[in-house]
Protein: SpoIIE family protein phosphatase
Organism: Nocardiopsis alba
Amino acid sequence: MNGKSASGDGSEAVLAGAFRHAPEPMALTAADGVIRHANHAFTELFGRDADELIGTAWFALLDAEEAERGARAQHKALAGEPRRVRLRLSVTDKFSQMVEVQIRPLREEPGPESVVVLFHTLSTEEADLRVVGDLRTDNSDSVLWSLDLGSGRIRELFGPTPLGSLLAGNDGDLESILERIHPDDIARVRDAMSASFAGRDYEQRFRVFDRLGDERSLHVRARYVPGDPARLVGIVDDVTEHVQLVRRLADRRRTEAEHGRLVTELSSKLVSATTVDKVMDLLSEEFLPIFGGFSAAALYVEDGVLRASPSALERGNVTRIDGRRADDTDYPMGAVIQDRQPRFFESRAEIVSRFPAAVEMMRSIRGQAWATVPIFGDGKVALGVWQMVWDRPHHASRDERALMLTFAGLAGQALQRIKAQQAELELADAVQRRMLPRQVASFPDMDIATKYLPSRAEWRICGDFYDVIELPDNKVGLLVGDVQGHGVEAAAAMGQIRVAFRAYATNQSDPGVVLGETNRLLTETGEIVFATCGYLVVDRGSGVMQAAWAGQPPAVLATQGSYELWSPETGPPLGVLPDTEYTVTTRVLAPGTTLLLCSDGLVESSEVTMQDGLAQVGEALAEHGEDPTAAAQVLAEMAPAGRGDDIALLITRMTPRATPPPEQAESPENLSVSPG
């Protein structure tokens, strides 16, 4: 076959016969691929005689598009790289057949180099599987692969694919490929690979860096195939786009969840807002992220004109609108208020064409799109207007429009509720002030100052009260109390308690009996009304004080430079337990000593303990107590516990005398506390 004698008699003839009758199509070619010899199976494959085939390059027998691939495979085989390539033969003009071609060079000494080309024709089933493999990998992000578990070499089953080249190129070493796996995934991948070496199938999702340095997500599946060597045969799918899509969907869901949370939170704020300015500020500031707006403005109608909140005026974006007539339909806000119909403008040109008068105003505005909706309540008149501005052309979607109208409706309900609360507040404030004495009794030997401070908290009118009652036998009753609750009911209850106190006090000098009778009255009425109070009867001649206490803070006694806290024995608040007897505690108010009775709103809050509040009050009273009126003003201004609750206080000071009465010398002494 090659012109040389083989060892053994007749060996050359035997080899030539084996070549000629081999079941697989075979050809012996020169280095350029020209056929020198072809066996019988080869000639039958193409339906030609051997003489017709000799002198023809074997790859010229392929489909026109495959000839170049065959020539490259021949060249690479001669370069020392054994090739096994899948090609398509042109058998007839109308029929082609897929074969697997194996190319191996024969090194002849000293003759010319020859190449053996073996054609493995595929069965119908094999051809179908090859087609499926082609479809699976052609123009797709998949690789069909095989791993030799003995050598650790990886190869693609049906030749190179774009994804295989991107992931590994010509590098088929397993360890080199594992080095490209993301550090966070490598341990898991290696563990699964170790299990596969022990005979298990393989399936993993992991991240890998391709040869360009980009991160990709792969889904790798393989079946363990026993043999010598054992192999893993499987599929690599690039699922990067799928993973990115899942991430985008997850991000979108998180965004939607955050959007929903924000909508719920802001809706709750609108529902619970307690001032008109708070409602306007919510619409102007906190709703921007939901709609992606550049700025927003909300104004309410007051006496026929548009009004903005103080904070909006400070920002300066509504100064040209604040004070404008609400019925001025030459401008979008006025038109929306008049017909209660929302208006959405996607560009400056659109708004200018509809409202030419707004041209001058818009010169200083960088907005490019506007949404203007009415703030409406139950009536037919708009309570205000809300405008969202975008700094780019924007089409408000149906959902955005519906959401804006929903928020505007909530804002309108809040405004209606606030107006009703304002009316109640004004009524409660009027009731409370009418219930308090316009002017307390005065005495030549006592300086007395009183002060009532309403709460600055939102919508809180409470039941704090004070009173000074002139009693027989040169005595005076001093009273400070606090009715539980807020609003008109608390103010009315306060008035009832104060009237009851006066009625009982004028007929009874014992403060404990007065508290007991008032408590009995409250418990017998059947109304759930509770009140803390401190009632103190002072003998103006001797300075002796008798105190009955029902849950009030301690009294403060101060002289110049020092103070002390006096805590009379206390009982439960009035209205809690029927038939309660209140103990009377006695001590002397020395001339020159200043006495403070106050409600807990002065000295206690959620941020300030009563002990700290009393300490601050005591120090202030020790410094300013010589003038009760000035001291009351100082305490009102400092308000140690803040102004979250009503405050009632009563300060009195006995005028100093030259000689103290004997009762003072016999009175018990309490520990004095020096400020500082």
Notes: The radius of gyration is 50 Å. Residues 398-435 form the longest helix (38 residues). The first strand starts at residue 26 and ends at 30.
